[in-house]
Each structure stands twice: as structure tokens, then as C-alpha cells.
Amino acid sequence: MKALSLNLTFFNNKLRYRYLVGVTLFGLLLGILFKNLWLNHPLNIFILFIIPYVFYFSVSFIIFHIIRLQKYRLWFVLMPGVVLIVMLYPIVKWYYYSFLTVHGVVFYFPWTDGDAQKLFIKIVRGLAFVLLFLSLDTVLWQKREKIMKIDELQLAVKDIADHALLSGHFLFKLYQFAAKKKIVFDLKVLDFFQYVINKIAAHNPRVGLIEEWEYLKQLMDMCTHRTIEIKGEELVPGHIWNRSVPALSLMTWIENAVSYSPIGKTIPIVIEWIREKDTTIFMVRNRIASENKNKGTGKGLELVNRLFEPLKEDRVNLAYRIEEEKYFVVELKFMN
Questions:
Q1: pTM, whole model, 2 decimals?
Q2: pLDDT in tens, the chain (336 residues)
Q3: What pairing do the DSSP bridges indicate for beta strands 269-276 and 228-231?
């Protein structure tokens, strides 16, 4: 019973859209088959005529997909199909030859003994048509889901590959800082390097914003050859800290700002949190050294930009810009 409950939940949530699309297409097909009816009579007459067809389609749709979700063999559909034919025969006969005629709507001549076989054949043909429609629907949707899963897998692999490239790039930059004696080694620095190495080994493209922020501040403490200012940290709402970002992304922006800003501690690199209506903005602003103005933004920013592309669906937007032809600005927006 538990498995049945799970499958029916899946049916209710995932197949509702398929049913709406299917019944709409089925209605259009009926409109083509019986075009003379809706062309020569009011629309409500056509609707009254196709009600048994739509009901037939709906019941068949439910039975077909329950059997499919329960992973029974599809030939098992024939058994409830036969039952459906037997049950529908008296209902369809009553609807067209008794119920509608009493209300002044007549589609057929009065019932005669020879009409029984004709009606039975129509019902069997209707079942065959509906089963063919549902089979085609299943094949097309399975193909669509396969394509979607392949796209999702390709995106996941791309994220992991970009993250690996970013991790390697970031680690190499840290090594360059260390080689130029721009980082003073102590236990905290070694812990920071171990964190970066662990992220590379874990192949985890995303981390919580709070985790990235804490290690970002460690990186700032390590960069003793630059002045880095933090503004507005207290403005960040608690739920924003739980948002996800690509691992090492914020730290790459600081590494880029340090690499491309003027040497010395005179001109600070500014990290600022800004709170606007329904939006929290993380901004990094650094002066561009004159010798770096024509060098581009660096490989690291290109990799970070690629990693943030999938996060647009999570209402996270990233933008880079140049201000006053001398400041480089990174702006990351988290929208509620």
C-alpha cells in the first residue's frame, strides 16, 4: 500500500500537466473529426456530443498511467479496457438515446435492434484510438524526459569541470602569493589551504554563503599587503546566509581584486553588503592598476561567471562593470 501511495502522489503531481495537454489535443482531434457539428450548430451542442469521449479518455488515462506507475506489464491494460467497454455500453446508450433526447437534443435516429452492434463497434474503436493516443503520449514524454535528464547531467558535469578549473586556478594564485611572500604562513593559513584542497577533492560545486563568507574573511586576513574594507555585513538577513554559491567564487573575486589593484595599502579594496527592497547585494570594488587596464578580467572571473549561470533560476544575478574607467566592480544580487 505504501508503494501505491507513493506512485499515486507522483501521478497527482507530475501527470496533471500531461493530462491537460492530452485532453486538449484529444478535444482538437474530436473537433476535426466532427467539424460539421460545431460548424453548423451552437458550441454547446458540440460539447454535449463529446462529453462521453472526454470521459472515456479521462478514465482510460487514469487507468493506463496507474498500471504503468505500478510497473505492471502494459498488456494488463487490456483487462480494464474490456471492463470499461462493458460498463460504458449501457451508459453511452442511455446518454445519447435517453438523457439527451428527453432534453430536446437528438443526435441519432430512435434506437433499433440493429444499433446495438454499431454502438459496440464505436466504443471498441474509441478505446483503440484512446490507447493509441496514450501510447504515443507515453513514448513522446519519455523521450522528452530522457533529453531533459541528459541536459541536467551535462550541466552537472560542466559545473564539476568548471569548479575543478576554478579550484586549480585559485590554488595556483594562492601559491603565487606565497612565493612572492605576500602571505605570512601560520596555522590559520595552513588550515585555509587545507580547506581549498578539500573542496577540490570533494568535487562539490556549491557551498553555503555563510561558509564561503567565513573563509573569505580568512583570505582577507592573509592578504596583509593590501587594505580591504568590509561594509554593511550587519545588513544581511539571516535567510540570505543560507543561500548557495559556487565554492571559492567570492574568494576568487578578492584574489582578482588583489591581483589587479595598485600595489600597496593606500587605495583600499571595498567589500560592501547593500540591502534594498527584496534584494541583498554583495559588491566588490577595486581600483584598477594602470598597468592592468588592458589585460582583461582574468581567467578566474570567466570561470566564476560560468558557475553562476545555473543559479539564475535561484534568483541570483551576477554582473561586472567598470566605473569611471578606473574601478572594477563585481555585483552579486540575491533576490528574495
A1: 0.51
A2: 444 444 445 455 677 888 888 888 888 888 898 888 888 888 888 888 888 888 888 887 877 777 777 666 555 555 666 676 667 778 888 888 888 888 778 787 788 877 888 888 877 777 777 778 877 887 888 788 778 776 765 665 555 555 555 555 565 666 566 555 555 556 677 777 777 777 766 666 788 999 999 988 888 887 777 889 999 999 999 999 999 998 888 888 888 888 888 888 889 999 999 999 889 999 999 998 877 555 555 566 777 877 788 888 889 999 999 998 889 999 999 998
A3: parallel
β-strand pairing of 244-246 with 228-231: unpaired
CA of residue 327 relative to chain centroid, distance: 36
Beta bridge partners of 283: 272, 331
End-to-end, the C-alpha distance of the chain in Å comes to: 40
Cα–Cα distance for residue pair 128/124, rounded to 1 Å: 6
Question: Is 52:100 a contact under the CB 8 Å cutoff?
Answer: no
Q: Enumerate domains of the chain plus CATH numbers.
A: 2-111 (no CATH), 158-335 (3.30.565.10)
CB–CB of 322/329 below 8 Å? yes
